[in-house]
Amino acid sequence: VALVAAACFIASAMTATGLDRRIALTVLSKVGAKTHHIVIGAMLVGFLLAFVVPSTTARVACLMPIMMGFILAFNVDKQSRFAGLLVITTSQTASIWNVGIKTAAAQNMVAIGFIEKQLKVQITWGEWFVAAAPFAALLTVALYFIMTRMMKPEMEEIAGGQETIRRQLAELGPMTAKEWRLLAVMLVLLGFWATEKVLHNIDTSSTTIAAIGLMLLPGIGVMDWKTSQKGFPWGTVLLFAVGISVGTALLQTKAAAWLANLIVLNLGLENATAFVILMLLSLFLVVIHLGFASATALASAIIPIVISVLTAIKTPGLNVVGMTMLLQFVVSFGFILPVNAPQNMIAYGTGTFAARDFVRTGLVITLVAMVLLVVFALTYWSWM
Fold this sequence. Notes:
By secondary structure, this protein is an all-alpha fold. 74% of the residues lie in helices and 0% in strands.
């Protein structure tokens, strides 16, 4: 809970200093005025911000006004395919890199918490990145081709597009001392995350909370308490805390174990192979996610049950920790409905696309993600 709250403070600091907007505009100013290049730029921004803004909702909430500003400044129709393409791609990129980066989303923290509590094993930032980033990278490439083919933009190039982006960047002025300090703190923090258990044994929560302490220190910090509260998503922290409580209740009352036994017996998983177990439980998670408006809530309710299911299975050599981690990747597959994730709802709120556009592209993205899951399960993850 402290880590998620700390992540929200980092997002708040990014917004307070304007560093997130500067990163976005700087990247977009380098990609050119062709519509496909602007889409690649938006995806690249989503990827970079996933490292330094540990809140999906905050990342997309930061990017949507920028994207809408471009659409208006480019004199592009708000209901055009290009507008819908840009907004949906921004949202889906955020969801994909929730898989690739441990600190990018609250639901990963939920899963890590339950793995540590039930299985007494820690998964470092680096271990998660090595396992998940190649999958997320390939899915990002697939996303580009899916979106640019299924929502082909009306024009190939935006007249005056680069000038518009450069003008908005120039309006920000030179980087302030606070932005430089925040960037330095974030790069050092990223270094601590990436080298956990390699160069030191300080866990992610401790380093993140220490970074927040630095950000709030008088004189060398980047914001005061009052500034940090502007737009602070207390609802996210509350949802996370309640979710942890629900998951803990499932464990302590033995409800998770009871449900796990039902699932194992009814699906015939008792002596199934690791591959069959992964595929069946992944399909189950994709379907059940349709009824959840938050991957954090889904992880809170389902990961304790998943761990209980995996520990009840008698397949020899089954890596329970690794399998739980892979199934947590699937928890982030909220690609189908606008109501499957807060970032999707922020995108839908722009009014640039119809729900059917999100659903038809989201179904294809989910299908490709499942195909990649099969390929990685049979190759890369098996080799690991």
